[in-house]
Write a structure and sequence with these properties.
By secondary structure, this protein is mostly helical. The protein has 4 helices and no strands.
């Protein structure tokens, strides 16, 4: 894995956690306060924040897809995780494993241990 691919995966990982937490925050605080307390001032800022974070995640997902040459099924899986509440937390876990495996493989290639 080259440095640009590793950086793309790391950026996607960093974006997955805030995106994963913004959607439940919108549902719980924005919608919950509006329904139960008749207070709708949180919906717009939380919705805007979630929309920006979701857009950033999708752009970074497309960048990672371009660099890693993942099959469409894998990209659709990560997109589905972004749509589910707290799904980005699982995406972070999967991306962390992939990032670590790529670093180990790159180190092994550099040291001449494997022909990967």
């Amino acid at each position: 894995m080259d440095i640009k691919t590793a950086a793309a995966l790391h950026r996607l990982r960093l974006a997955s956690i805030p995106e994963a937490l913004s959607f439940p925050a919108l549902l719980i605080f924005g919608t919950g306060f509006r329904i139960f307390l008749n207070y709708d001032k949180l919906v717009m800022p939380l919705g805007l924040l979630h929309g920006i974070l979701f857009t950033i995640f999708v752009v970074l997902l497309l960048d990672a897809w371009n660099r890693t040459k993942w099959p469409f099924k894998r990209v659709a899986f990560f997109f589905l995780l972004a749509v589910l509440p707290f799904g980005g937390l699982y995406a972070d876990k999967v991306l962390k494993r992939e990032e670590e495996a790529g670093v180990v493989a790159a180190r092994a290639r550099r040291e001449g241990t494997v022909n990967a």
